[in-house]
Write a structure and sequence with these properties.
Number of helices: 5
Shape: globular
Largest sheet: 6 strands, mixed
CATH architecture: 2-Layer Sandwich
CATH topology: Beta Polymerase, domain 2
Order of helices and strands: HHEEHEEEHHE
Structural class: alpha+beta
Strand content: 15-25%
Radius of gyration: 14 Å
Distance between the termini: 35 Å
Length: about 170
Amino acid sequence: MRSANNPSPNLHPSDHDDEPGAAASTAGLAPGGAEAAGGDSADTDGLEEAGIALDGALDKRALEPVLLDVRGLCSYANYLLIVSGRSDRQVEAICDGVLAAMKAQDHELLGIEGKSSGQWALIDFGDLVVHVFHHPVREHYDLEGLWIEAKRVPIEVPNDARISADDMY
């Protein structure tokens, strides 16, 4: 259940973890969530939106979600959510899931690029930018490596959203 202090059951209230895809509890975002999210309490814009977008992506079976806190590292967003799909159709479905979840909560879409290609879509909500990749394309561009200095916001990653070594491309 969401509330003002619990925007998503997939966001974790603890400090950032530098490990990729760190699993977390479903406690939600703690009151005073900026400190819990590992950053400046004055600017957590985008964190609630990230939880909503993450839920929308996971509803469409997104893989390997990672939420990066880029406050202080870039001027165009506070958070980057990166997820993968197994095919071009799934990438489009994940985009649709994110858009529907955000629209249902009255969050304004500023722009979307690449959705129809099914390889890499960028969805811009201002303080949150969502990247949806076909997984091999994600590995090629390695945004997590590009943003190595960004803190990872701990999120709960369901087992079915993990890619096992047997499933690697």
